[in-house]
Design goal:
2 copies of one chain form a homodimer.
Chain A: H1 17-21, H2 36-47, E1 58-64, H3 68-76, H4 79-85, E2 90-97, E3 99-100, E4 103-104, H5 108-125, E5 129-133, H6 138-144, E6 151-160, H7 170-177
Antiparallel strand pairs in A: 1-2, 2-6, 3-4, 5-6
Helix pairs in contact in A: 2-5
Chain lengths: ~190, ~190
């Protein structure tokens, strides 16, 4: 356990503790059981995200460690992600209904990002850690889980308890303790 | 003021109050000044959203009521949105860097959705209301604000104080008081 690990963002304006303290670990506890109540709350938070015309384009695959589904998701991850994400108690695929009756859904990806953000905020509030990954084989996920062409897998989120940071291999520990950085808000303003 | 208006979601699992209570109003106070501190906190929350390889693809245009920028954004909104969103103290355009050095950025839209979600969560915690719109002329926004081809406007968010729901025109009041609904989580699970 790393109860003293403080990854709180150094913010320029006050924000909710849960938003400042949330970060994306790569060091998960490989044996701690999944907190099912916390997972249910995180999914529920995702459920109540806003979306264009309330279309709710998000779709989820929840793969728990030790199941065939988990092994199938792990097999789609690129090597570096496999090396640490396999430890997480769950891998949650965030997918979107990107097509309905042949019509592209222009806000499906954006809105699924919103649902994922709600998930992570609630997960952290409930004591879970999360890390989203883009490095996986989308076609392999679609094939393994029989997804139709209208559903696009977007990210895989590792979800679970924080692992032993001090005892983690050097490359992971180093990344974990590196300062958290973001561009300033001023540098994100355009068109002014 | 509508201090007794309760739009709290009826959740199947406990979630943070701010996530349950956040909803997308269409009734903004047309005269209340913008709470600049709350806006700064909401932008700061967006700043600390996660993104693929920390690319931070989000870009913002902040258009305050009474400015030329505000009028320019209003002019791009489709008619129904114009009818209510013009009242909001600010219109914030969420755009994404969808291309870098000619390479498409596959997670830019999703990650900007995450930043928008962080913004809305913090905004509501800070007493602001928000409503995201997809109904606007993207090309007109790009032209009005001189955005390059690498930046794609995704949504316009109305941001401000809640208006007088009881005194609002019938079609708006009716939508405002309609029950909030979402598909069940079970219906969002795929591939199981």
């Amino acid at each position: 356990m790393n109860l003293t690990l403080d990854r709180t963002a150094s913010t320029d304006a006050p924000i909710l503790d849960v938003l400042a303290e949330r970060w994306s670990t790569r060091i998960f506890d490989p044996v701690a059981p999944l907190d099912e109540a916390a997972l249910a709350s995180a999914l529920e938070a995702a459920r109540w995200a806003p979306s264009a015309n309330n279309t709710q384009p998000w779709r989820f695959i929840v793969a728990r460690r030790g199941t065939e589904a988990h092994a199938a998701v792990v097999a789609t991850l690129v090597g570096f992600n496999q090396s640490w994400a396999t430890d997480a108690a769950a891998l949650v695929v965030f997918a979107a209904t990107t097509e309905v009756d042949g019509r592209p859904q222009h806000f499906a990806t954006y809105d699924t990002g919103q649902a994922a953000a709600h998930f992570t905020v609630q997960a952290h509030a409930s004591g879970l850690h999360t890390h989203q990954m883009g490095g996986f084989d989308r076609a392999a996920i679609a094939a393994a889980f029989g997804l139709g062409a209208d559903i696009t897998p977007l990210t895989v989120m590792a979800v679970g308890a924080l692992g032993d940071v001090a005892g983690a291999p050097e490359p992971l520990r180093e990344r974990e303790l590196a300062p958290r950085t973001r561009r300033s808000i001023a540098d994100s303003l355009v068109g002014a």
